[in-house]
Structures are given as C-alpha cells and as structure tokens.
Design a protein that fits this description.
The chain is an alpha+beta fold. Helices cover 25% and strands 30% of the residues. It is elongated, with a radius of gyration of 18 Å.
C-alpha cells in the first residue's frame, strides 16, 4: 500500500467519530506518512538552505543534499560540496525532508 492510500484511509477514519485520543493517534500517523513521501520538484521545492534527501531521474540511489536559492532559482548540492548535482550530470526529480536524528530514550530506573 502506498502512503497516499494509507493517508486517504486514515482520513476516512477521522469521519467516524472516534475518541480524542484515537483521533490524535490517527492524525499523528497521517503526519508521519506525509513526512515520508517523495515530493516532486515540479510540485514544490524545499526551503532555502535546507538539507534534504533527493531522488534522481537518471540514477537509482538517493542522496543527502543541500538546496540553495539565488537570483536565478534554486540549486541542489551534494551535502556540503560546492559543485552542483547538475555538474555531475545528475537530475534531481524529487525530494523529502530528512528524518529526525536518532536519540536514545532514557529508561527510568525502577
């Protein structure tokens, strides 16, 4: 099942009159699914000076990228490099936000 179908099903469940706790859990699930969807560059571009995960039209491996805007538009760069993906012949066609860094949960001693 793709993310959009899951989002649509969860949204339909919101119409059933669930408890506040259940609605909150469903909304959290919808938010998480939306955060893990590829966003086509033709639909929307990332915020200026943000780090994101990018997909390529002409390569199968995603990469962590930096997006920067200037007077001529926006440009994608591999990580902190100064050369653009275009200079390597790579065409960015979609992106998604990076997940939050892992933080170990501290267990309370009982």
């Amino acid at each position: 099942m793709n993310n959009q179908r899951a989002i649509d099903r969860l949204t339909k469940h919101l119409e059933w009159g669930w408890s506040k706790k259940t609605v909150d859990a469903i909304e959290m699930g919808i938010h998480a699914l939306k955060e893990t969807q590829w966003i086509p560059c033709s639909e929307r571009l990332p915020e200026d000076e943000s780090y994101i995960l990018v997909s390529f039209e002409n390569s199968t491996m995603p990469d962590i990228a930096r997006y920067e805007e200037n007077d001529e538009g926006g440009t994608f760069y591999p990580g902190d490099e100064e050369e653009t993906y275009a200079s390597y012949g790579l065409i960015v066609n979609a992106w998604m936000p990076l997940p939050e860094p892992y933080k170990e949960e501290k267990q309370n001693d009982k």
